[in-house]
Amino acid sequence: MANNSSRAPLRDLERATSYTPIPDQPPTFIPAGNRRSKKLFASIFFSSVFFISLILLFINQQPESQTNVNGSNQEKSTFTPISPAARSTPPSRGVSQAVSEKTFRAIGVDENVSYPWTNAMLSWQRTAYHFQPEHNWMNDPNGPLFHKGWYHLFYQYNPYSAVWGNITWGHAVSKDLIHWLYLPFAMVPDHWYDFNGVWTGSATILPDGQIVMLYTGNTVDGVQVQCLAYPANLSDPLLLDWIKYPGNPVLVPPPGIGVEDFRDPTTAWLSPDRDRWRITIGSKVNQTGISIVYETVDFKSYELLDGVLHGVPGTGMWECVDFYPISMTEANWRDTSVNIRDIKHVLKASVKDLTSDYYALGTYNPFENKWTPDDQELDVGIGLRYDYGKYYASKTFFDQNKKRRILWGWIKETDNEADDIMKGWASVQSIPRTIVFDKKTGSNILQWPVTEVEDLRSEVVEFNSVKLGPGSIAPLEVDTASQLDIVALFDIDKDAVEETVEADVVYNCPTNGGAANRGKLGPFGIVVLADETLSEGTPIYFYAIKGASGEVETHFCADELRSSKAPEVDRVVYGSKVPVLNGEKYSLRSLVDHSIVESFAQGGRTVITSRIYPTKVINGASRVFLFNNATGVNVTASVKIWKMDSANIRHFPFDRL
Ligand code: DQQ
């Protein structure tokens, strides 16, 4: 049984008592059914909808001007902001007419209004080279690891429905992180301690090659406990069978920690004397998000260390904490246990209240069990995010195969559950990203798609030194633009920037009106997943501002306001600041995969993932544009666009073994 005695109680937590686990008892496993789907289907039937101004919607979203690449239309915006009237919606044709539909419960959007989705649209929206299961719901990536030539990905999965529930560990393997083979489930909720879900966990590979998997079990009573599992047969490269330790749970919530606030153990790292392992687990005390640390020798009994690794008031529950070293000097990563002089430590928390993954760089003092951020103002939960779009519950692992740290993240849907049930699947995993320290800025990490994704590149087209005058937009000749890898470099007219005394002063992607809002030095960038008339499309762009001090500050944004004709799906503008250093061009890379666009600015300093639901660009109608919607500066763009093949994602061919 777990040893929860701490060396000293956590100061914050002294008053409360400990949770007492249920004594071991025979599990009564009741197969979980699709408990929520009936209710959700009913809610759709009761949606009353009206056909209001489809035509108006089109008219209001037409760009005012579409000039050639040297366009001189300086006054008009190339993008017309969507007026509230343009958000009026057509009626649902409804399930009775065999047409799927979506409703997104966004603020200000009428829940009873739905778009007449067609099956063609919905099936086109499924991605072609991102990992997703064949059917049903998926959320967090779990326990990624490399073993005997195979990358293993486990994931939170509902075998019965396309909404969250019945959480089981799905399992898939790959030789290259791109093409995947589905395997049988690794773990199902079949014991009292994980009856309500085999929740998120992490793998640790011990020096002798053993694999330890720690995960959160949600007990029959809804208490979060930590559990141990290990492969039945280490010599099996596929790691098909997993054994849950008979003494589970190995940890229960300690005094002062809520029974529902104790989850997602990390990969273990070694203590300074290298004879004990440490893990950290996310939690909260009142509204302070915290990460607590345990020590163990055998992963069966644990000791809670004094204090907390770190905590940030006001950030609420920390889920899926990740903690790892990052080398300031070498591109290739050290493994999770390294702690030497040229190392910083990244602490990441998935901040539940904001559904966003925040990280910070800092210094780890293993003797005091403390991590301190380099910059208090950029602390976890209030500073930098891995991704400013749809990206959550991420997890890294050290790839001992190629000596690099790789990041996985869950891209969730931004429509609603009823729709997910109808289309039969929900969520995608991001393209895995390598993480390195940004030596140039010294204050952030760089994320970049693993090089293996480049094997999917096929035909390439290049556009060199395209001149974009203020207010111009240039269509690029790329056919079937729904699976692309785009790399674009932008030069802006330096004299014009210098002569500009002041441009905007403050800017914020989410609240400044998207690509339709024109300033002197922005926006400029690309529009992807656009139809020919630009009535639908997603601009990915830079927006520079210049304050009285003369400093130029750049923002990187993704404008989803016109990403879909469906008014009720999530249509927002994402983004944040991005450092553009002296001598650097503005650079972006976008991986376009039907309904996902993962965009990386300045080599991965700022990243935005868009989860969008185009309606007009399906089946070959998708186009790419360059644009410059700034009023006071010329922009020169050079772009390379590769078509991307589909990844091969299928069941493991056991019959051919
Ligand atoms: N998802 C898991 C939890 C985790 C949450 C449950 C984050 O373990 O905290 O599916 O998305």
From TrEMBL:
<dbReference type="InterPro" id="IPR013148">
    <property type="entry name" value="Glyco_hydro_32_N"/>
</dbReference>
<dbReference type="InterPro" id="IPR023296">
    <property type="entry name" value="Glyco_hydro_beta-prop_sf"/>
</dbReference>
<feature type="domain" description="Beta-fructofuranosidase N-terminal">
    <location>
        <begin position="18"/>
        <end position="122"/>
    </location>
</feature>
<dbReference type="GO" id="GO:0004564">
    <property type="term" value="F:beta-fructofuranosidase activity"/>
</dbReference>
<feature type="transmembrane region" description="Helical">
    <location>
        <begin position="40"/>
        <end position="59"/>
    </location>
</feature>
<comment type="similarity">
    <text>Belongs to the glycosyl hydrolase 32 family.</text>
</comment>
<keyword id="KW-0926">Vacuole</keyword>
<dbReference type="InterPro" id="IPR021792">
    <property type="entry name" value="Beta-fructofuranosidase_N"/>
</dbReference>
<dbReference type="Pfam" id="PF08244">
    <property type="entry name" value="Glyco_hydro_32C"/>
</dbReference>
<dbReference type="InterPro" id="IPR001362">
    <property type="entry name" value="Glyco_hydro_32"/>
</dbReference>
<dbReference type="Pfam" id="PF00251">
    <property type="entry name" value="Glyco_hydro_32N"/>
</dbReference>
<dbReference type="Pfam" id="PF11837">
    <property type="entry name" value="INV_N"/>
</dbReference>
<keyword id="KW-0812">Transmembrane</keyword>
<feature type="region of interest" description="Disordered">
    <location>
        <begin position="65"/>
        <end position="96"/>
    </location>
</feature>
<dbReference type="GO" id="GO:0005975">
    <property type="term" value="P:carbohydrate metabolic process"/>
</dbReference>
<dbReference type="GO" id="GO:0005775">
    <property type="term" value="C:vacuolar lumen"/>
</dbReference>
<keyword id="KW-0325">Glycoprotein</keyword>
<feature type="region of interest" description="Disordered">
    <location>
        <begin position="1"/>
        <end position="31"/>
    </location>
</feature>
<keyword id="KW-0378">Hydrolase</keyword>
<keyword id="KW-1133">Transmembrane helix</keyword>
<keyword id="KW-0326">Glycosidase</keyword>
<feature type="domain" description="Glycosyl hydrolase family 32 N-terminal">
    <location>
        <begin position="130"/>
        <end position="449"/>
    </location>
</feature>
<keyword id="KW-0472">Membrane</keyword>
<dbReference type="InterPro" id="IPR013320">
    <property type="entry name" value="ConA-like_dom_sf"/>
</dbReference>
<feature type="compositionally biased region" description="Polar residues">
    <location>
        <begin position="65"/>
        <end position="81"/>
    </location>
</feature>
<dbReference type="InterPro" id="IPR018053">
    <property type="entry name" value="Glyco_hydro_32_AS"/>
</dbReference>
<feature type="domain" description="Glycosyl hydrolase family 32 C-terminal">
    <location>
        <begin position="452"/>
        <end position="643"/>
    </location>
</feature>
<protein>
    <recommendedName>
        <fullName>beta-fructofuranosidase</fullName>
        <ecNumber>3.2.1.26</ecNumber>
    </recommendedName>
</protein>
<comment type="subunit">
    <text>May be present in two forms, a 70 kDa monomer and a heterodimer of the 30 kDa and 38 kDa subunits. The ratio of the levels of the two forms within cells appears to be regulated developmentally.</text>
</comment>
<dbReference type="InterPro" id="IPR013189">
    <property type="entry name" value="Glyco_hydro_32_C"/>
</dbReference>
<dbReference type="InterPro" id="IPR050551">
    <property type="entry name" value="Fructan_Metab_Enzymes"/>
</dbReference>
